[in-house]
Design brief:
2 copies of one chain form a homodimer. Chain A is α/β, with parallel strands linked by helices. Chain A has 2 domains: 160 residues, NAD(P)-binding Rossmann-like Domain (Rossmann fold, 3-Layer(aba) Sandwich), CATH 3.40.50.720; 121 residues, N-(1-d-carboxylethyl)-l-norvaline Dehydrogenase, domain 2. Helices cover 52% and strands 13% of the residues of chain A. Chain A has 13 helices and 9 strands. In chain A, the strands form 2 sheets. Chain A has a 6-stranded parallel β-sheet with strand order 3-2-1-4-5-6, with helices on both faces. Chain A is elongated, with a radius of gyration of 20 Å. The relative contact order of chain A is 0.10.
Chain lengths: 298, 298
């Protein structure tokens, strides 16, 4: 018999992931800070819990997918948190992107109560969450990773056990360092090309298939040329993840100058009220710096 | 009858390109500053010229593939340069990566003598030159691009006419801005991952297929983990191309902070005598900065 599952955090990502768990046949309890977000899942067969602790008392495996480190600390360790209701031997899977150090601390506190934890941050956007094609980077003990596999496979495709507690979060931050570095390169290249009077569509076609190519350029480059700022991933969340990477780099004593540059651009965009736009709107910061605007079809 | 072709500059790239022109059946004359480099092509059926001017007097189309702006100026405009021997209506195709501004100036001087010019910088490395799979970014008049097509198709696959004189060079610089930006992101991510104690092979496997992915990460990431510094493209040439991008950005008045950062790292590596290593040895500058060395299979 499969283990019963609880899901905390029914945002853009969690909503799709919880639906995929129901589709895969798991007995599912849900909890969300804004209670109305639970209605659709309850209509689909989930049961609504009255608190994270209440949810945990009914489940073998509890998945958390919230925004930031303090949110995870609240729903796991806070008043009415998971830790106060969890059954002995239960497994917490944290799919949020949060601090690797805080992750290790939470895992230690849970272990003292006989509870297990995996950090399992996700990548692939709301589309990947809806389709069940997420990439999942998992940190924790091998036995618990094996135990979690049926649940993880219901939500994602490329599931990699990358190391012990916190390693999933660290790899996610590596992922984000690459994402924002590639985005910076793309935006700088577009602004340079615009200043040089190039046709940006032809330029994109000429460079995207070779050594200059990236997922970012292929997926977000055309969006920039259409000035379509709809988010695959918002500036607010990108800025949060870059902040986590900078904090981790600072703790580790490693310089990350490119990531640091990206952070300040994202901060500038938030100050302009653009936090809910897609992370490729990064180019607006560079356009403002350069005093020009990139345009397709010149 | 196809036009007769001359090739100036039989370096790593030019050698393979000239061979492909012979294979495609073109009547080929060659010239190289170091004369012994011509021997193998002469053995394959090319004729050796005694100077760029001498070569130009025998050819309808002259291809130049040398290192830098002054080299092109010398073989085209200098003593015994192409301009002094070229037949009326001849076409010069410059496959070198040089200054877009200098390109427009050379094209103007040639036009005053009734000569045509295309800038057609290439991408794809020595392997692409040998296999005839180069990407070629072409700037110049449409009629001349059409005229050049049989010759370009003998050397490359992805041939894009991107605009007027100098536009090919500008797009090549856009390409290089993307290449070094993606390389910086990769190196920063690896050093961060190493500092965090991650298994770098697992990390690479977890992130390279998603939103963090790039040609650079997929092709050069594994080479870095093997500490294999053999060049697809050398640090010396990369530094030269970045210098051209910075000069063009300065002329255009557009800030390129990421590219500027890359330039100084490449300068540092040249100062350490590493100019002939592959451009992914960029990570050595970051390792020195961070005081650690990335390693596979921890």
């Amino acid at each position: 018999m499969s283990e019963s599952v609880g899901f905390i955090g029914l945002g853009i990502m969690g909503h799709g992931m919880a639906h995929n768990l129901l589709r895969a046949g798991f007995e599912l309890s849900v909890w969300n800070r804004t209670a109305s977000r639970m209605d659709e899942l309850v209509a689909s067969g989930a049961s609504a819990a009255d608190s994270p602790a209440g949810l945990a008392s009914q489940c073998d495996i509890v998945i958390v997918c919230v925004s930031d480190t303090p949110d995870v600390q609240t729903v796991v360790l806070g008043e009415n948190g998971v830790i106060h209701g969890a059954r002995s031997g239960a497994l917490l899977i944290d799919a949020s992107t949060i601090s690797p150090r805080a992750t290790r601390e939470i895992a230690e506190q849970l272990a003292q109560r006989g509870l297990h934890m995996l950090d399992a941050p996700i990548s692939g956007g709301s589309e990947g969450a809806a389709k069940g094609t997420l990439s999942i980077m998992v940190g924790g003990e091998s036995a618990q990773v094996q135990r979690a596999m049926p649940v993880l496979r219901a939500m994602g495709e490329n599931i990699t056990h990358v190391g012990g507690a916190g390693a999933g979060q660290m790899v996610k931050l590596v992922n984000q360092i690459l994402v924002v570095g590639n985005a910076l390169a793309m935006c700088e290249a577009f602004v340079f090309a615009q200043a040089g009077g190039l046709d940006l569509e032809k330029t994109l076609a000429a460079v995207s298939g070779g050594a200059a190519g990236s997922w970012m350029l292929s997926m977000r480059g055309p969006q920039i040329l259409e000035r379509d700022w709809s988010p695959g991933f918002t500036i607010d969340l990108q800025q949060k993840d870059v902040r986590l990477a900078l904090a981790a780099a600072d703790e580790l004593g490693v310089p990350v100058p490119v990531t640091s540059m990206a952070f300040h651009y994202y901060r500038a965009l938030q100050a302009q009220g653009l936090g809910s736009e897609g992370n490729h709107a990064l180019i607006k910061a560079m356009e403002r710096l350069a005093g020009i605007e990139v345009r397709a079809g010149q």
